[in-house]
């Protein structure tokens, strides 16, 4: 639940990286809330609640997806592969399941390792080589 709320707090943040767990928990809770809202909407015989939820969750869904793509070293524009029928959805799902790039990439530091390794391990002194 914290990942879902965290993604909502980063409502339109398209920079940085998102871990697999952040993305998949956001998807999980989004689906659960959508099903609950769908049941409530059917009980009161209106679809306005589902529509409002879909509109409210659209931008955070895009943002967490783009950050997830950044985590594996891909451009956020790769989200457009979803427009390729069938194969695009499969390809996108595989990308979302890939592990993070190790260390820092062009989109920022690895969220799994918030502390830089260089700050933990002291640099080795330069020892001149004797000939």
TrEMBL record:
Gene Ontology CC: plasma membrane
Pfam families according to UniProt: DUF805 (PF05656)
Keyword Transmembrane part of the UniProt annotation: yes
Transmembrane segments: 23-42, 48-65, 77-95
Record keyword Transmembrane present: yes
Keywords for the protein's UniProt record, in alphabetical order: Membrane, Transmembrane, Transmembrane helix
Protein name: DUF805 domain-containing protein
Source species: Candidatus Campbellbacteria bacterium CG22_combo_CG10-13_8_21_14_all_36_13
